[in-house]
């Protein structure tokens, strides 16, 4: 049995909240550089240049790359041999989020759904826990902005529709989302499970590095085909027209009920933020 | 790049068309959903607005908190469609410009033609970069709304692009149709 204290967890979460909002991943920066090369529209090129400059300012000045510092999604991977000491794990995560958003000058954007009154702490965080073998304790913080979250969807397709219906839905979703999710975007698709399982898997698919290969050959082919179809829509960076609407398509599948075909599409803006730490 | 200064006049607006890159200097007022609702409520009650809206540009933004050494935190645009329900009322009392991101409703595009107003987009998510063009910030109303309060921002060389002009053109439509190819073509 390995012991991990809540003080360690609070500090890790606090730091990850700031890091995630200040430093864009190298994979995303690399995708911006490729976009700058391949983009045909002058407006689109100017946007890639601005995004690279924006990321550099955020990193050097330690300020959030986007003013919407998101709802804090926390993925936990907890080994069954781990024992948390000193208090509640949930409270520790939320404490870390509260501290990170306060100390890091991050915007607090969480409110009551009816009164719209802000909790002023950016909590509660959305915590997704996986209990796994061994004694690992891994925290991933993935802040997600409202603009791109509003463009995400979960739907239940008819099984007979198959792959074609899935692809059409994803392309249609991008067409309808247009400039709202701050393109260039990452398109995460989860097929199968149940509606709630698909939604979580799609969110998780956003954590994959841009440019990494899908080990499933069939999904890999679907990803390439979808990327072409989506970018052929011509919506382009920021929706001003151009070749690069999506930087990547990430697909996950999961077995489902014989009568269902759940599908979740999560669009993530270019501020594709996630940072992880293993304690 | 067209350089313009606030307040916006009919002459300035007549010279702008969809697709123009614009650099704005002068003052912007910030407002998001709740602040818009309060402004429209004041108009419904026949009361005065907390700032002079004549010729003004409203920037849809809720900045992140500023560090002690800075004028403002990161300050990029929020999605504009949430303000569609209020935009025409504000144009009716003199608002001339809006800055946000994303497509506007048909009635808002039509209102821009009728009231000779203009809609710009700033780069969504380029918030640390955009903050560099903000010189000073002062809270004008609704301090209780925190990041959603109404602020007066002094800006210099604030970059954006014209999306909708007074002739009804829409850069999102023009831009997409120019680059669209293949079987999923929509228009
Ligand atoms: S969608 Fe993303 S980049 Fe755009 S404003 Fe929201 S968080 Fe920022």
Can you describe this structure?
The complex is a heterodimer of chains A (279) and B (187). With 279 residues, chain A is of the alpha/beta class. Chain A folds into 2 domains: 2-21 and 65-144, Dihydrodipicolinate Reductase, domain 2, CATH 3.30.360; 147-271, 60s Ribosomal Protein L30, Chain: A (2-Layer Sandwich). Chain A is built from 8 helices and 10 strands. In chain A, helix 1 (6-22) crosses helix 4 (89-103). With 187 residues, chain B is of the alpha/beta class. Chain B has helices at 10-14, 33-44, 84-92, 106-115, 127-131, 171-179; strands at 2-5, 21-30, 57-59, 97-100, 118-121, 134-141, 150-164. In chain B, helix 2 crosses helix 3 and helix 3 (84-92) packs parallel to helix 4 (106-115). The longest helix of chain B is centred in the N-terminal third of the chain and has 12 residues, at 33-44. Chain B is globular.
Layout of helices and strands:
The complex is a heterodimer of chains A (279) and B (187).
Chain A: E1 2-5, H1 6-22, H2 26-38, H3 42-61, E2 71-79, E3 82-85, H4 89-103, E4 126-132, E5 137-144, H5 146-149, E6 153-157, H6 162-177, E7 185-193, H7 195-205, H8 217-232, E8 246-256, E9 261-268, E10 275-278
Parallel strand pairs in A: 1-3, 2-4, 7-8
Antiparallel strand pairs in A: 2-5, 5-10, 6-9, 7-9
Chain B: E1 2-5, H1 10-14, E2 21-30, H2 33-44, E3 57-59, H3 84-92, E4 97-100, H4 106-115, E5 118-121, H5 127-131, E6 134-141, E7 150-164, H6 171-179
Bound molecules: iron/sulfur cluster.
